[in-house]
Amino acid sequence: MSIDLSLLPDGGVSWLDASGEHAGIVLSTRIRLARNLEGFAFAARAREGERLRVLSSVRDAVGASPSLQNSLLVRVDELSGQERLLLHERHLVSKELAGLDHRHPIRSGAAVFLGASSSVMVNEEDHLRIQALRSGFDLDEAYASIERVDADLGGRVPYAYHPEFGFLTSCPTNTGTGMRASVLIHLPGLVLTKEIGKVLNGLQTMGLTYRGLYGEGSEVIGNFFQISNQTTLGRSEEELLEQIKHVVRSVIGHEEEARRVLLRDAGYIIEDKLWRAYGTLRYARSLTFDEAMNYLSGVRLAVGLKLISGLSVYTLNKLLIFSQAAHLTYLEGRSLTDGEAGLARARYVRQALADEAGSSG
Amino acid sequence: MMCDNCKQNDAVITLTQPTASGVVNTLHLCEKCAAERGVEPSASVPKTALGTFLLSMHKQAAPVPVGTERCAFCGSSLRDFKESERLGCARCYTTFEGSLRDLLRRLHGNSKHVGKSYQAPDAEGEHGVSLRAELQDRLRRAVDSEQFELAAKLRDQIKASE
Hints:
The complex is a heterodimer of chains A (361) and B (162).
Chain A lengths: L25 E10 L12 H16 L8 E3 L6 H9 L21 E4 L4 E4 L5 E8 L3 H16 L6 E2 L3 E2 L11 E8 L1 H5 L3 H10 L2 E4 L12 E6 L7 H47 L5 H16 L8 H10 L2 H8 L5 H22 L2
Antiparallel strand pairs in A: 1-5, 1-8, 2-3, 3-4, 4-5, 6-7, 8-10, 9-10
Chain B lengths: L12 E6 L5 E6 L1 H6 L12 H11 L18 H7 L7 H4 L1 H12 L22 H14 L3 H13 L2
Antiparallel strand pairs in B: 1-2
């Protein structure tokens, strides 16, 4: 099968629409629940037959679940490497499910059900990974979506559950609630004022952790941080969510303060730096991915500080996704060398920014 | 967690430095920054709490035969877990309960689930109705209506599903 992303509402990237609360600083909120089916071995030991039977059971359950009505089933195991990378770049599937992690090649039975407000990965590290992705800072809405799916599926297929340890997962780091709630947040103010270290250390004492933009094992890029809960056992889902909410609100406060300090103490220096970032993106002929991410971070900050007007956060969000490798290949309709990708990326960015500048008169 | 120095890469080394005032500083560094400070990264330094636990399990000269007992459902052993960092099935949680309880305490600070509880749906059939219950209903009805051949067939089906 071949993936036709146009079948998805908004191509699966409605969470980019920057409609959520604090969307300038918090790009998105994501909650995922890990679940396994009783009676089948976990990913590490399951054989192909078992995985296909898991998929079949899940497919029946999804079909009968109101919360997943009209969801699109994508057999990730039947897609080309390029298509799998595309899905991953849109944050619709994890690296592992897409077979992009060198430790975990693509597994037969790897699939994802893509619904309007949530999705379910099948045969990843756990049999089920239920996920809700929302624009801006919205843990409550994301959790409500996920609970509906969890109730629908758990009422139709037996989950592996233990009265003492909770929902059983492949990796003990997820056992219990099986819940990982994370927020993707942009903190250039704290990075520029060199306060970021203190804030990040503070997170850890609060039982939270952070990663770079692209999840586990990724470097920090573009001043984006993914803040999530570290533990999943011993606290209720509500307690974990309250804790993240509380800490993220505090981090947002610190970031806003840092931005005020920057403007007050280094106003013209910052303005110059950020306008140069905008200028480069508007006119450069070649951009590496890292360069694009860094300049986009500067422009996003400029928009947040109201130094630049007529440029939407939605466009910036789209650029984050569309300047990635597989998306450029998709746009150009052929595979690209690094050099060609650099040219294509710059071209795409120039076009998007020119359109915005043109339309804002 | 991130390197305290560059804030870019994952920290793999923890450096503890006693200072003149008696305070001990703890620094988490990535390989690059550690090398710059002259710290030799050990190839076997674990990166996660899970890794640290598994390493300590390996070093234990305990009487508990780590790695020999196998789960009855999936055949995994604790050694398999150590290598893949993943458990084989739900049954493993019972088979290796003791070790896992310890590990869970270390990872989460707690081993008792206090989040939402769960009740599995009845086995078989649509709408949660058990197949056996349905067959038994039909058998009773068949007997009541003196359809003994049908009743016999249903009785056999029920026996077969046990």
